[in-house]
Amino acid sequence: MAESARNLNTPARPDTPSFDYEPSEDVRTEIATLRSEIANLREMLAEKTGAAYGRVAERAGNAAHYVQNEASSVAGTIREHPAATTTLFTLIGAIGFAIGYVVATASADSKHAWYDRYLSGRL
Q1: Which of 55, 78, 89, 111 is deepest in the core (most CB within 10 A)?
Q2: Which of 22, 2, 21 is nearest to 12 (CA)?
Q3: Is the whole-model pTM more than 0.85?
Q4: If you average pLDDT over each of 12-16, 20-24, 44-48, which comes out highest?
C-alpha cells in the first residue's frame, strides 16, 4: 500500500533534497564549523558571566558590611541618647500628622467650594 516517495507520479531528480538525501561534504564541514563557533561563544559567555558574578558578589558584600556598620552606629547613638531619640520620633510623628491634616483639610475645602458653586447656579 505505502509506496516509497520516489515511486510517485513525479520523477525523482537527483539535485533536489528529499528525506533520504545525504548532505554533501561541504554542508557537513559548514555544520561542524558552526557547532565549533557556538561552543566558543558559550565558553566566552561563561567566562564573562563568571567575572560579572564575582564583581557583583564582592560589591554586595561590601555594601552589606557598610550597612551593618552604619546600623551599629545608629543603634549606639540611640542607646547613648534615649531622650533625644524619643523627642526626635515624637517630632517626626507630629510633623507627619500636621501634613496629613493640612492635605485632608485642603481636599475638603476644594470639595466644599465645588458644592457651593453648584448650588449657587441652581438657586
Answers
A1: 78
A2: 21
A3: no
A4: 44-48
- Which residue type, as a one-letter code, is found at position 67? V
Say what the pLDDT of residue 50 is. 87
Residue 74, all three cell numbers: 545608629
What would the pLDDT profile of 46-94 be if each residue is shown by its tens digit? 989 988 998 999 999 999 999 999 999 999 999 999 999 999 999 999 9
Residues 6+ apart with CB under 8 A from 78: 85
Contacts of 18 (CB under 8 A, 6+ apart): 5, 6, 12
Burial of 85 (C-beta count, 10 Å sphere; 0-12/13-18/19+): middle
Single-letter amino acid code for the residue at 102? V
Assess contact for 12 and 6: CB atoms under 8 A: yes
